Amino acid sequence: MLRINQAFKDKAKVAYLTAGDGGINKSAEYFLALADSSVNLLEVGIPYSDPVADGPVIQAAMERSLLSGTTVDSSLEVVKKIREKNKDVAIIIFTYYNPIHHHLYDFLNKAKESGADGILVVDLPYEESGNYHHYCKSLGLSPITVIAPSTSAERMKDILANLNTGFVYYACQKGTTGARTGLPDDLPVQIANIRKVTNLPIAVGFGVANSTMVKEILNIADGCVVGSYLVKKLEDEITPEELKVSAQELFTI
Question: I need a surface site. Which of 65, 89, 199, 212 has the fewest CB within 10 A?
Fold first, then answer.
């Protein structure tokens, strides 16, 4: 939790990759390269066969990872490898509910032991999340909450009312993940509306594809999340050092 707070002290630069894309050891190298750039919060995605919130680039990464044999446990091994080499970078785990719901507490406990600071379960409805939030609190993990453009003011209040750790992930574009050419015009208004109901920091993601968009987001929000743009570079077989340079250029403000 403290590492997440630290990341947001001077704007959080959040980078997503799918665990196991390129193999477990190479995957850890990619994440460590990002942490050696200006990235201060890593989002480690657990591959899942039906990633309904993700567009074609991340879907392809998850398929590559699954075909190489990546599991939930080996995804946590990636987190452990990162943490062994870097004690300071904040790490959250991104997952869908299906791969973890049969062993929820065991998964969360292993996530904590591996070195994760928070968990984002992208498709778990607020109404069904009681046990999840209880377990996160008992283990000292931050449950990361997603707010979308379609989230009503009333529902947003309900979702955020009792949260006091982590951050709010504002998915600023409708639809699935994937690079876009620009940000929605209503982004400042949406950020202001979220701030009315929570004191948690706000990170904006979905569709961020260049340094101009990153700068625009960080002018009005507390953090920026980049996923598909970086994942595509792994598809193009970029080296960890080249990924580090690309992330440095992207997040330099």
Answer: 199
Quick one: angle between helices 130-139 and 104-114, nearest 10? 30
Handedness of CA 223, 228, 231, 232 (dihedral sign): negative
List 41's β-bridge partners, or say none. Answer: 14, 90
CB 66 within 8 A of CB 38: no
Cα separation, 238 vs 220, in Å, equals 31
Question: Domains in the chain: how many in total?
Answer: 1
Domain containing residue 96: CATH number: 3.20.20.70
What's the domain range around 159? 2-251
From the candidates 29, 43, 77, 222, give the one annotated as an active-site residue. 43
Per the residue annotation, which of 21, 29, 54, 222 is the catalytic one? Answer: 54
Q: For residue 131, what pLDDT is reported?
A: 96
109, amino acid identity = N
Could you please report the per-residue DSSP string of 47-84?
Answer: P-S--TT--HHHHHHHHHHHHTT--HHHHHHHHHHHHH
Per-residue pLDDT reduced to its tens digit, 52-87: 877 889 999 999 999 999 999 999 999 999 999 999
Highest mean predicted confidence (pLDDT) among 107-111, 169-173, 208-212: 107-111
127 is a catalytic site residue: no
Residue 54 annotated to the active site = yes
